[in-house]
User: Which sequence fits this backbone?
């Protein structure tokens, strides 16, 4: 019988191998991003796939996030007769955290899973080998455009999330809960700084890289037919989602220390 | 110089994956313009061998010369130049399923040459017609039969006029008529294009139908090599047993 210690050792070794392979892929992607040829057509195509086709799901998520956040925040702030702060509270939460994080999670579910499935299928049907035999580097052809497109489109989607979510919160706060429109808007404008919006967009760029790199890496290394592709897709979604949340914490720590005006980063 | 005069020369090639030693000192010489079939059962190391020839895998030891040039330790850029001497036809054709047949065949042209769309269309049509494919440019690979997909794969493989074509299990999964057609296609490719062909297969009938030379691979070693008649007369026990599975039926 296999000893538990050996099992743990094998798991740790496997985990280090996975991390090592991921780092190697990331280095390859960086290297091939700088080298010609630059395939603008593929980049635009991926921007459409990742960005434009994710619009609807981001739109829906943002609208309902705004509605629910106002509902919850109002019930809390009403205890302190501070309903006027609802708009600003929600706007700050959305621009700094919920916008980029929810957008990244939605893109992971929609585009990340599609990337892993597509590249996984290409791997098991030898289409990736075919690219290599035709003297086309598969990392440069398949992964680089997806990573760049994801890094470009994620902040755009996060910005759209911010705007739609604000409208959602306005509808719930002003139209449905009867908060004064002037107070709602004025307080939001007063408390919301440009740094709150831009910090969220910076995060979105990093999340874009994380989603595309992990999803492409999992698909690129799929093996074992349809089952392997399915496993690669599941891993891509789970690992990307967890990585986004972990990265969010570290980005917050980094920004608090190095981004002037962010959270505890000094007086406004 | 090593590898001189041969299209492909492999010497003492070894490859191991973990504990599994797949290739145990393969040596093989493929002459210009010939069709060499590497024949072996599943798991004998055929696919691993052909992936070394085109640089998809690096050997643990040994050397591979392509037209006199050593590639075992070549860098990515040099390897890509060598790869352009080859066309490869994959077992499942490996056509890009998001592209039409025309786009698949045009892919190497668009990647490596600066041609007008009109010139690309003309070349694509010419290469498809060469293997009896007419009016399929706008179809997707999923709309074609297995045999037709292999033909499209061959059209894509030869579109840059390579000097060598590698076939990975070209007749696997095909019915007898489609197998006949693919064998005809391999012979046609050699006759019309004067290319060097390397076919890996476990299909004994197909091997004897197309080969100038046959190498029998068993347990990571080449156990027999020669003209089809000489291989058929082999005294090697594995070769006799392997060939008897086919020749006892015909």
Assistant:
């Amino acid at each position: 019988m296999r000893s538990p210690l050996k099992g743990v050792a094998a798991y740790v070794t496997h985990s280090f191998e996975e991390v090592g392979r991921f780092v190697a892929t990331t280095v390859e992607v960086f290297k091939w991003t700088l080298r010609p040829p630059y395939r603008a057509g593929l980049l635009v195509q991926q921007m459409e796939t990742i960005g434009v086709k994710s619009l609807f799901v981001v739109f829906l998520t943002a609208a309902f996030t705004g509605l629910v956040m106002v509902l919850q925040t109002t019930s809390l702030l009403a205890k302190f007769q501070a309903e006027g702060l609802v708009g600003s509270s929600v706007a700050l939460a959305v621009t700094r955290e919920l916008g980029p994080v929810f957008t990244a999670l939605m893109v992971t579910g929609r585009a990340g899973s599609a990337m892993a499935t597509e590249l996984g299928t290409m791997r098991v049907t030898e289409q990736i080998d075919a690219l290599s035999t035709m003297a086309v580097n598969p990392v440069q052809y398949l992964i680089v455009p997806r990573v760049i497109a994801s890094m470009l489109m994620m902040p755009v989607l996060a910005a759209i999330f911010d705007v739609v979510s604000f409208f959602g919160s306005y509808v719930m706060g002003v139209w449905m809960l009867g908060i004064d429109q002037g107070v709602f808007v004025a307080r939001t404008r007063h408390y919301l700084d440009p740094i709150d919006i831009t910090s969220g967009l910076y995060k979105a760029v990093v999340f874009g890289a994380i989603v595309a790199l992990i999803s492409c890496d999992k698909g690129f290394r799929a093996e074992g037919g349809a089952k392997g592709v399915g496993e690669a897709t599941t891993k891509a979604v789970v690992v990307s989602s967890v990585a986004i949340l972990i990265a969010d914490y570290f980005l917050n720590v980094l920004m608090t220390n190095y981004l002037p005006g962010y959270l505890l980063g000094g007086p406004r | 110089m090593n590898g001189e005069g041969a299209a492909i020369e492999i010497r003492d090639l070894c490859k191991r994956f973990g504990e599994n030693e797949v290739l145990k000192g393969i040596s093989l010489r493929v002459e210009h313009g010939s069709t060499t079939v590497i024949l072996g059962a599943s798991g004998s190391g055929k696919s691993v061998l052909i992936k070394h020839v085109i640089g998809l895998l690096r050997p643990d030891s040994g050397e591979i010369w392509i037209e006199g040039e050593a590639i075992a330790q070549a860098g990515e850029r040099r390897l890509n130049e060598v790869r352009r001497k080859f066309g490869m036809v994959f077992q499942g054709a490996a056509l890009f399923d998001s592209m039409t047949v025309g786009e698949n065949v045009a892919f190497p042209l668009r990647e490596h040459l600066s041609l007008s769309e009109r010139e690309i269309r003309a070349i694509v049509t010419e290469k498809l017609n060469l293997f009896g494919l007419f009016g399929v440019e706008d179809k997707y690979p999923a709309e074609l039969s297995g045999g037709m997909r292999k033909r499209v794969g061959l059209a894509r493989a030869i579109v840059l006029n390579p000097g060598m074509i590698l076939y990975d299990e070209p007749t696997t999964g095909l019915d007898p008529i489609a197998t006949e057609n693919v064998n005809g296609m391999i012979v046609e490719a050699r006759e019309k294009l004067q290319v060097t062909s390397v076919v890996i297969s476990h299909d004994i009938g197909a091997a004897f139908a197309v080969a100038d030379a046959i190498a029998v691979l068993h347990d990571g070693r080449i156990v027999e090599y020669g003209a089809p008649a000489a291989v058929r007369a082999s005294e090697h026990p594995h070769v006799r047993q392997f060939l008897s599975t086919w020749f006892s039926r015909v």
